[in-house]
Hints:
The protein is an alpha+beta fold. It has helices spanning 17-28, 46-49, 54-57, 103-109, 116-130, 140-143, 179-184, 231-241, 288-299, 381-402, 419-429, 479-494; strands at 7-13, 34-38, 66-67, 80-81, 133-134, 163-166, 168-169, 171-172, 175-176, 192-196, 202-206, 209-215, 218-228, 244-245, 255-256, 268-275, 282-283, 312-316, 327-332, 346-355, 363-367, 370-374, 409-411, 431-432, 462-464. The chain folds into 2 domains: 1-132 and 173-267 and 360-375 and 436-495, FAD/NAD(P)-binding domain (3-Layer(bba) Sandwich); 134-169 and 275-355 and 379-429, Cholesterol Oxidase, domain 2 (2-Layer Sandwich).
Amino acid sequence: xxxxxxxxxxxxxxxxxxxxxxxxxxxxxxxxxxxxxxxxxxxxxxxxxxxxxxxxxxxxxxxxxxxxxxxxxxxxxxxxxxxxxxxxxxxxxxxxxxxxxxxxxxxxxxxxxxxxxxxxxxxxxxxxxxxxxxxxxxxxxxxxxxxxxxxxxxxxxxxxxxxxxxxxxxxxxxxxxxxxxxxxxxxxxxxxxxxxxxxxxxxxxxxxxxxxxxxxxxxxxxxxxxxxxxxxxxxxxxxxxxxxxxxxxxxxxxxxxxxxxxxxxxxxxxxxxxxxxxxxxxxxxxxxxxxxxxxxxxxxxxxxxxxxxxxxxxxxxxxxxxxxxxxxxxxxxxxxxxxxxxxxxxxxxxxxxxxxxxxxxxxxxxxxxxxxxxxxxxxxxxxxxxxxxxxxxxxxxxxxxxxxxxxxxxxxxxxxxxxxxxxxxxxxxxxxxxxxxxxxxxxxxxxxxxxxxxxxxxxxxxxxxxxxxxxxxxxxxxxxxxxxxxxxxxxxxxx
Length: 495
Ligand SMILES: Cc1cc2nc3c(=O)[nH]c(=O)nc-3n(C[C@H](O)[C@H](O)[C@H](O)COP(=O)(O)OP(=O)(O)OC[C@H]3O[C@@H](n4cnc5c(N)ncnc54)[C@H](O)[C@@H]3O)c2cc1C
């Protein structure tokens, strides 16, 4: 890294899905000089581009590798919270599944200026740059999903109605096309500086104004303001470390902001594993030749390396009672070992159930100088019940979808035949879909940490723009909504 200048008009913290869009929007509006500060490295590693290689990025130095606090709802277990740590952020390690969410998700936020009518044109603009499209060569097992719910043609499934099928992805020519590709790199020029490998430790607040950030002891100043785009964990953490938050979670409090770090939530999820000969991608003798050919096939856009692992999805009502979808399933045509070993032999597939609109809430705190991520899964047992019902329905749906190509369920299988057993299994095995949001809720009410124009309440010239500002998680995956938030934020900030 070259030695950075020390003064910019704007400093954007985090080059993730939202931060890349914020920075590009400021540059395109000629708002001034912009420095984007990213804790992780550049995204120029080949694994970032190869869809299947995300399995090797998770757990690497390009993943923050956060861990939750032990959760009562999960029988005291802690779970991994992967977050991308490089240019492109979590959008550089994710599965690239592309969903906007439902119109009612945004209308339900009840925040002036953020209804579906307000955000739909912003999604259009984002999609003009990311060009999400149907996976070119899905595994034949994934194609089976279109049989469900009376058939969905080749349309992607929709969280608005019961549907299943191959998803759309932000891939171009079979390679990841993240917010760094769609927004940040096209904005390159003399006014944009991207500083990698530097972690913002805290804000520099002068009077009631954000005037810069600290990289360790080094101060970078911002004449027009600072934008927090460090994600749902990073952004509230920077505020807490800067003395902005609830009194029980900050040292040297400068602003009492009781809701900073509150309202943390994610889509809880739990999966089913299926295994059998001639089934999905896996390490078997029969597939040895296919694996040997896989680098070549990848260049042709085919085979396991070209698969973003999640290939298909379904939205359905967990209880099957005709009501609207309340769960999402991700379909992965790979054998996945339920004990978690990455290289276990076998052929098969995997599908999960995630609660679309969870009621449980947790909290992110700092205690004794340490980050404490209390995800709060199943604090509201309604989520546990919905997920449990959903797994029973998934069992039937998988049998219907796969027909003659169905492989036997190997986990949880016989361990979960009654509702009570399945519920216990969920507590023992559930995780999340990796969609944490909500820790800097935006709202028009005075206690919301962030205003509808994304200003952090109580500090001038400070904005938050990333998944943390969602009052409630959208009903599907959160990358597209995060880019939409970043793109929109730039227009507010430049104005
Ligand atoms: C493994 C995985 C799979 C996923 N799959 C999908 C999917 O298929 N589809 C989908 O829609 N969503 C998916 N998601 C979720 C989606 O990627 C995220 O919701 C989205 O990227 C969040 O965007 P963001 O801008 O809020 O944060 P991020 O993209 O995480 O960006 C935050 C950035 O800030 C940086 N940062 C943090 N703290 C600091 C600091 N102190 N100083 C400097 N920089 C800092 C980080 O390194 C990171 O680059 C997945 C997520 C993961 C982790």
